[in-house]
Amino acid sequence: MNLKVQKSDITQLQVDAIVNAANSSLLGGGGVDGAIHRAGGPAILAECKEKGGCPTGEAVITTAGNLPAKKVIHTVGPIWKGGHQNEKELLAECYKNSLELAENHQLKSIAFPNISTGVYGFPKSLAAPIAIDTVNDYFNENPQSIIEDVYFICFDDENYKLYSDLLN
Ligand code: AR6
């Protein structure tokens, strides 16, 4: 499998699955969540409503509506509260559960935003190694995985530099 870092708008990507950094209501919000719903259209929200919400650390899958991606995987990152409320474990769960969902739906390429590092305030320098380590652990534990490409999509320079340094 290939782990790649890219600086781009996740809504533009032609991959099997893009991941949304949602909130537990799944009813939309700002940041990457707002961008995905705006660009994907109402079909995504309609399916999100049917799901009835999603606990922190877990993930659900919906149509990608009008987006070039095939599916959207919505995961709910933890809100940073200082680091002693299981935030690191919950962030890792977001990556792991999203990969499992992609795997179960035969999706071979997946693009992650930098979950929790916007409005939810997770320190970027702590989140990047958790994201990369969790993906690497997943492939070590699942050598038969059908997932071929994992993209870490960075929107800001700080995250892009962190991921670039860690991956190279
Ligand atoms: N493409 C890729 N990355 C993006 C995009 C985009 N179009 N837009 C923003 N980012 P955030 P969170 C980056 O705040 O911290 C929402 O209101 C952004 O620079 O979107 O998990 C939800 O409804 C940052 O690095 O998500 C929740 O209530 C990263 O995406 C809450 O925000 C995540 O920032 C979730 O907060």
Automatic annotation (TrEMBL):
<dbReference type="InterPro" id="IPR043472">
    <property type="entry name" value="Macro_dom-like"/>
</dbReference>
<dbReference type="InterPro" id="IPR002589">
    <property type="entry name" value="Macro_dom"/>
</dbReference>
<dbReference type="Pfam" id="PF01661">
    <property type="entry name" value="Macro"/>
</dbReference>
<feature type="domain" description="Macro">
    <location>
        <begin position="1"/>
        <end position="168"/>
    </location>
</feature>
<protein>
    <submittedName>
        <fullName>O-acetyl-ADP-ribose deacetylase (Regulator of RNase III)</fullName>
    </submittedName>
</protein>
